[in-house]
Amino acid sequence: MSIGITTYGAYIPRYRITVEEIARVWGDNANDIKKGLRVLEKSVPDRDEDTATIAVEAARSALRRSGLAEPTSELYTSAANLTLTRSSRRRRLSRSDQGDAGADGC
């Protein structure tokens, strides 16, 4: 019997929004965002995708990776929304502009 994490799964929505479009809506400079966050685009869920849907897809991915037809024990899932607020993005931009970005580059 295995105890611990025996597999994992992930799901990233297929639609994307560019940094240029985000900057246009916020009235910001796209190059500043790219430099500070080091991203070119962001995944965007479809109209019918919410955190529950994303968690189910990630669980299905984990089951496919495990090779099991069905779970043999408890299955725990977690979903995270990595969308940054405008104020947290500015903090990250100002930190990276000062050259003291953390190990994760933020």
Task: Write up this protein.
This protein has 106 residues and is mostly helical. The chain has one domain. It is 42% helix and 8% strand. The chain has a two-stranded antiparallel ribbon. The N and C termini lie far apart (40 Å).
Q: Would you count the extended β strands for me?
A: 2
Largest β sheet strand count, sense and barrel closure: 2 strands, antiparallel
Q: What's the SSE pattern?
A: EHHEHH
Q: Please tell me how large the radius of gyration is.
A: 18 Å
Strand arrangement in the largest pleated sheet = 1-2
Residue ranges: pLDDT <50 for 5 or more in a row? Answer: 84-106
Dominant shape: elongated
Q: Calculate the mean pLDDT score and round it.
A: 74
Structural class: mainly alpha
Helix content: 40-55%
Brief digest:
The protein contains 4 helices and 2 strands. The protein has about 110 residues and is mainly α.
Set down the secondary structure blueprint:
Elements: E1 15-18, H1 19-26, H2 30-37, E2 41-44, H3 51-66, H4 86-97
Antiparallel strand pairs: 1-2
Main features:
mainly alpha, 106 residues
